[in-house]
UniProtKB/TrEMBL annotation:
Superkingdom to which the source organism belongs: Bacteria
UniProt keywords, alphabetically: Heme, Iron, Metal-binding, Monooxygenase, Oxidoreductase
Name of the protein: Cytochrome P450
The family this protein is said to belong to: Belongs to the cytochrome P450 family.
A Pfam family hit: p450
């Protein structure tokens, strides 16, 4: 029904959506400056999407929540898959990827895994997360200053956690990290991204088959034991299990990895805010919420298609048009928060949408929160004099679903010019 298109590799998270053409650079981290979405002042704007298609961008908090909570008038499933004509291929691409589906298929898939990401379940994981964080801090300290935080710490924590949770061999982390980065990179040809997506799907399907032969006490094993027999209409076939596993694997490390790196960057550049985090550990939960709101590391929520003519403010969005929500803009809306362009770790938690909203709200939000609540305080407690080991802005990843930095050299201890230029590329996170 729709002429709108979606990437065939759209498999990260609700907050893994399109960066519009009007916003070619990330929120800029310049010393002493804030950053803001590169959109206009209108609540609803017509912009160019990442693949050249026109989309409507919603920039206010209230309207954004309304769109994301209305799966009937704003559909994920009715978006066309770009360049995919075969119904069977479309089915396989969507199989298990609940982010591309509407109810009732979305409901069936989400219900299968919701119990794995409850607050209680994540609370039971916290001791293991603490151990993983401490182990990587030990390795950083043993390696010595300086290190690249995007190698030694930021991706290592969520990658190991999600590998253990899912039942994915940690030895394969470099492969899936590289493939995930390719899938969400808009600068690469669609065919390249599609091929890598197929490779990940094949890898996960083989892993599912291994778990069928020998189910372990991990998420994939439990899913196969509970929902993999095929005897119940709600059971999942191998394509669905592989698609769901891929979704959780990518979403389980990409967003948190970039939040840890960018959060460290902004805290090192705003020492007054870092001081609040260090001196008031009892407020770490609220501090993490403020970092999530302020950073809003995802440009746009995943695109939807209007299933009917919808009027937002004084703009009518025609049936069949694509719609996205600018999460950074919504999370700075004065209706949500005063002085939203400022980072204030003393701020009371807000009802932000960093994890999206509605039925596609990030399933792993409790896990991501726990990882950040543990990692940030322990990083700065271990290295109280942590500092950036670069003179200019880092190299930002911009044309991706989730923005971040390609490297973040940091140092600690006595300042030595030779140390500051030392090799930070040696692998620390083994």
């Amino acid at each position: 029904m729709s002429t709108s298109t979606a990437s065939t590799t759209d498999s990260s998270s609700e907050t893994g959506g399109a960066a519009p053409g009007r916003r070619p650079t990330p929120p800029l981290f310049r010393r002493g400056e804030d950053f803001a979405p590169q959109l206009g002042d209108a609540a609803v704007e017509r912009i160019q999407g990442p693949f050249g298609e026109p989309v409507w961008a919603i920039t206010t908090w209230a309207d954004g929540r309304a769109v994301l909570s209305d799966a009937e008038r704003f559909s994920r499933e009715q978006l066309d898959l770009q360049g995919v004509d075969s119904p069977e291929e479309r089915r396989r691409i969507r199989a298990g990827n609940m982010l591309t589906l509407d109810p009732p298929d979305h409901t069936r898939l989400r219900r299968a895994v919701t119990a794995e990401f409850t607050v209680k379940r994540i609370r039971n994981l916290r001791p293991r997360i603490e151990q993983i964080v401490d182990d990587h801090l030990d390795r950083m300290e043993a390696h010595g200053s300086p290190v690249d935080l995007t190698d030694a710490f930021a991706p290592a924590i969520p990658s190991l956690v999600i590998c253990e949770l899912l039942g994915v061999p940690y030895a394969d982390r470099h492969d899936f990290q590289s493939r995930a980065a390719t899938i969400i990179d808009f600068t690469l040809p669609m065919e390249t991204r599609r091929q890598v997506s197929l490779e990940m799907r094949t890898y996960m399907r083989e892993l599912v088959q291994q778990h069928r032969r020998d189910p372990g006490d991990d998420l994939l094993g439990r899913l196969i034991t509970r929902r993999g027999s095929g005897d119940d209409p709600d059971d999942l076939d191998d394509d669905e299990l592989a698609g769901l596993g891929n979704l959780l694997l990518i979403a389980g490390h990409e967003t948190t990895s970039n939040m840890l790196a960018l959060g460290t960057l902004v805290l090192l550049r705003q020492p007054d805010q870092r001081r609040l985090l260090v001196e008031h550990p009892e407020n770490v939960d609220a501090a993490v919420e403020e970092l999530l709101r302020y950073l809003s590391v995802v440009h746009m929520a995943l695109p939807r298609v209007a299933t009917t003519d919808v009027t937002i403010g004084d703009v009518t969005i025609p049936r069949g048009d694509a719609v996205v929500v600018s999460l950074p803009a919504a999370n700075r809306d004065p209706e949500l928060v005063e002085h939203g362009r400022d980072l204030d770790l003393g701020r009371a938690p807000t009802n932000h949408m960093a994890f999206g909203h509605g039925i596609h709200h990030c399933l792993g939000a409790p896990l991501a929160r726990a990882e950040m609540q543990i990692a940030f305080p322990r990083l700065f407690a271990r290295f109280p004099d942590l500092r950036l080991a670069l003179d200019d802005d880092p190299d930002f990843r911009t044309e991706t679903f989730i923005y971040g930095v390609r490297s973040l050299p940091v140092a600690w201890g006595p300042i030595d010019a030779a140390d500051e230029t030392a090799d930070t590329t040696a692998e620390v996170a083994r």
